[in-house]
């Protein structure tokens, strides 16, 4: 097969591992810088051009699209879909998962466990917004934040009011969310491929840090999932329409709660923690599923 990885850099761990896994399984693979692609949008013969040449026909693409380039990255992925190329994560699903508010609304509609969450533009009563999610302590999140950036823990109602007012003064979009104290600064990253959890790790925040992101000094170890946790992760991926994703769960007194569904999960932390060849499992999924014109949302925007 001929596979393209859409990535800003060939030197990134996840990109490098995916390329190695493709080669090990006998496939041709190209790493393409998403931002250097440009599109020929023609009804009779859509194409993607790169460095002055039209790209060849690929059997599949693997989008590694960072949050900062979601709009352009999904446009490139959509162009490949229009050309009949199999996309591991369809453009519509990536866009859906990147909108934190929309993704939580979709998960809620399907009855998937979530922390109590509030969203408002200009609430008349900030105290009521805080009360509605269970009061302080609570977590305040920027909708556009990634890797733990733009996530603040407010220990008291007074602190929460001040932080919310400050964010609103900057015209920032925020979520106000219940703080799940019993999680103890840890979460579980479940790696889902093709409707199945293939790897899972527990991420523990550094001492004094409520965010468990590995980028912020957290540590990771292999973890055994309960049946409910496994089902929650699989259902969350299904709701988002993602074939390949990381589902972040909190262990709460009310069962597993989904914090986020990541459409471009990193492989370094989970491969290191579990010793599993996650990249190889993704390539195996592509081998079984890559068929021309198989994008479900093709032609629907």
UniProtKB/TrEMBL annotation:
Source organism: Pseudoalteromonas luteoviolacea
Entry protein name: Probable alpha-L-glutamate ligase
Residues holding ATP: 141, 178-179, 187, 211-213
Binding annotation for Mn(2+) 2: 260, 262
Family stated for the protein in its record: Belongs to the RimK family. In the C-terminal section; belongs to the RimK family.
Gene designation per UniProt: rimK
GO cellular component: cytoplasm
Taxonomic placement: Bacteria, Pseudomonadati, Pseudomonadota, Gammaproteobacteria, Alteromonadales
Residue sites binding Mn(2+) 1 per the record: 248, 260
E.C. number(s) listed in UniProt: 6.3.2.-
InterPro entries given in the database record: ATP-grasp, ATP-grasp_RimK-type, ATP_grasp_subdomain_1, RimK, Rimk_N, Rp_bS6_RimK/Lys_biosynth_LsyX
BP GO annotations: SOS response; translation
